[in-house]
Amino acid sequence: MASSHTPRTRQLELLSPARDADLGIEAINHGADAVYIGGPGFGARASAGNSVQDIERLTRHAHRFGAKIFVTLNTILRDDELEGARQMAWDVYHAGADALIVQDMGLTLLDLPPLQLHASTQCDIRTVEKARFLANAGFSQIVLARELDLAQIQAVAQALPDTVIEFFIHGALCVAYSGQCYVSHAQTGRSANRGDCSQACRLPWTVTDTQGRIVAHDKHVLSMKDNDQSANIPALVDAGVRSFKIEGRYKDMGYVKNITAHYRQLLDEALAQRPDLAPASSGQTRFDFAPDPQRNFNRGATDYFVNGRQDDIGAFDSPKHAGMPLGWVSHVAADHIEVQLDEGVGPVNNGDSITWFDLQQELQGIQVNTAEALDAGQTRFKLALKDLPKACKDLRRQTVLHRNRDMAWDRVLRKKSAERRIRVDLHLADTPEGFVLSATDADGHYAQATLATEHLPAQDAERNSAHLHSHLAKLGATIFEAGEISLHMSQPWFLPPSQLNTLRREAIAALEAEREACRERLPKQAPVEPPAVYPEDTLSYLANVFNHKAHEFYVRHGVKVVGSAYESHEELGDASLMITKHCVRFSLSLCPKQAKGVTGVQGTVRAEPLTIQHGDDLLTLRFDCKPCEMHVVGRIKKNVLQQAKAEAKVSPVKFYRARP
Q: What InterPro entries does the record point to (predicted)?
């Protein structure tokens, strides 16, 4: 069990996302040690904000289990937004939040509450130098770039033994290094760094080479599969990861329950192998379902770069969810289809959704209106679809089907599906005045309640003992479950059920009060003095400096030249709109390193630029082979600049400009 005396670098934390307080509560119930959630504003998911009252409701529930609530304040801010962000930080502090997740360094120079600071994924932490700088600047927990491999993760963890290393283990992948993507802002005026990404990376693009030849037609070449580190949890623990983060503040209840439960089981297995480590919160969780990450929306699974560069990280055919294998079409009639299910697949339900790939390998899908079993074993089904079969593109005999919505599974997760309990040992003894009930929980907290009453001898000692045990064990409406129950009596006394229940309720209430009284807030780390020197002395727009406080921060830390954020509109020509470890050349088998040593090919494949086009949007792909990175190059659209000028006339805004 975690205790406040176990250093956080010796605890394993499962960190789950929550779109709102209800999802956050279910994440806690399904085994999360911490939840990250948007506050009333300034979070990197523009439409996932929550009221201070809801944050308070969530923190109250989480703190009962010793779990933590981290509030996202991780967009870049204009000067006129800093005061609102500062006030919000104080509001969520008073609501009980345990930490702020921050991208904008300008916030660190404000009068913030004594809340622990965690570095957002938008901080783009890829190197030991950057990680060490942020730790020295007052950040207690840092999330490393998703693109790092095990050796790079380990190098950071070993260099910073007192800093909690966080890493994304599941969910959607941004193709860009986080914080280094400006495609959305350049094309639509919606800034990913301000929580409003238009997701151009999920669109189909046509790729052409320098001679204008089409290399790939209408392929989702910037769309990644989804992150799934299930197989790598022990290796990540060994590398020094201590906070295991699930992506998904836009995701639904079923996703949060299922994925949290899945990784709770994997982390519990890891903890059983590592007695030197402790869980980061209290209680044991039991599930009423078998967690399965493949059942949620996903674009296929990849462990990305954790084990080095892989061939198969892209979801190039479709950014949609194909679902689980279902079977194949055995017959097509005018108003229905008949389906033969794969072995071991559960029956089709009314309301399920099925998918298939058409002849162009585009994913198609349709809802099942009614499903009727054609045999006793439920292996063949007659399906009436939302449209007639002839309206379904390329849905014919022998077509392989998947199911991307299973109503039976959805029903399981709509109900109560987990229970989280803390073990408590109870000890009943007699006193000269009556009785005393002592309660000691699994974390070592102790409380007691007394009852002044006369002593009534029991008529049947054995039945009386069973009666006392059964009533003391009734902890149903609490967060506890009975462990050892012991009786220490001078002789068998009878206690009426009403008195026994009152005594138990008072002891448990006292124990909860003791747990809350002993709960310590996470300490805020002071920046080192004199201020640590930033690893570089010149910063471009890639540093995302959008307010004068952020500029002041970097100057204080030794930076001589500070460019302004892309959103300041000073980069009007061609610029890197995205920097990514994903390489389209590599994925299309056009990488010079792949061609090395291949007879007849060596030397003929060069890392020349490629062009990608979607509609009127045209971007250039440039390849930096030394660090093995790709730059997506383009320029900001005129209409975005015009729109910004028009908006500034209506309501003037203040932000940092490098060129006043």
A: Pept_U32_collagenase, Peptidase_U32, RNA/ubiquinone_mod_enzymes
State the pLDDT at residue 606. 84
- CA-CA distance, 547 to 551, in Å (whole number)? 7
Quick: pLDDT tens for 123-180: 999 999 999 999 999 999 999 999 999 999 999 999 999 999 999 999 999 999 999 9
Identity of residue 644: A
Q: Which residue has 């329950």 as its token pair?
A: 257
- The closest of 408, 419, 393 to 332, measured between CA atoms, is 393
Element (DSSP H or E) covering residue 404: strand 400-405
- How far apart CA 393 and CA 552 sit, in angstroms, is 58
Do 374 and 238 sit in the same domain of this protein? no
Q: Are 96 and 63 within 8 A, CB to CB?
A: yes
**What is the distance in angstroms between the CA of the first residue and the CA of the last residue of the chain?**
56
Residues 407, 425, single domain; the answer is no
- Please give the structure tokens belonging to residue 643: 């729109």
Same domain, 20 and 86: yes
DSSP track, 604-645 = T-----EEEEETTEEEEEEEETTTTEEEEEE---HHHHHHHH
Residues 374 and 441 in one domain: no
Name the residue among 320, 321, 300, 323 with its Cα closest to residue 409. Answer: 323
Q: Which of 484, 170, 108 is nearest to 306 (CA)?
A: 170
Give the residues across from 613 on adjacent strands.
Answer: 206, 618
Domain that holds residue 247: 9-173+225-281+289-295
Residue 434 — φ and ψ, nearest 5°?
A: 165, -110
CB of 131 within 8 A of CB of 144?
Answer: yes
Q: With beta carbons less than 8 A apart as the criterion, state whether 449 and 456 touch.
A: no
| φ/ψ of residue 472, rounded to 5 | -70, -30
Question: Residue 61: what pLDDT?
Answer: 98
Whole-angstrom distance, CA of residue 108 vs CA of residue 126: 21
Are 406 and 349 within 8 A, CB to CB?
yes
Q: Rounded distance, CA 215 to CA 591, Å?
A: 13
In angstroms, the Cα distances linking 91 to 25, 53, 232, 450 are: 20, 10, 38, 39
Predicted confidence (pLDDT) per residue in 314-333, tens digit:
999 889 999 999 999 999 99
Say which residue the tokens 């779109």 belong to: 19
Q: Which helix (H) or strand (E) holds 158?
A: helix 150-159
d(CA 62, CA 56): 10
Q: List residues bridging with 244 in a β-sheet.
A: 14, 167
- Name residues of the chain where pLDDT drops below 70: 1-4, 44, 46-47, 595-604
pLDDT at 1: 46
CA distance 519 to 442: 15
Number of domains within the chain: 3
For 449-492, what is each residue's pLDDT tens digit? 999 999 999 999 999 999 999 999 999 999 999 999 999 999 99
Residue 603: what pLDDT? 57
Q: What is the pLDDT of residue 597?
A: 60
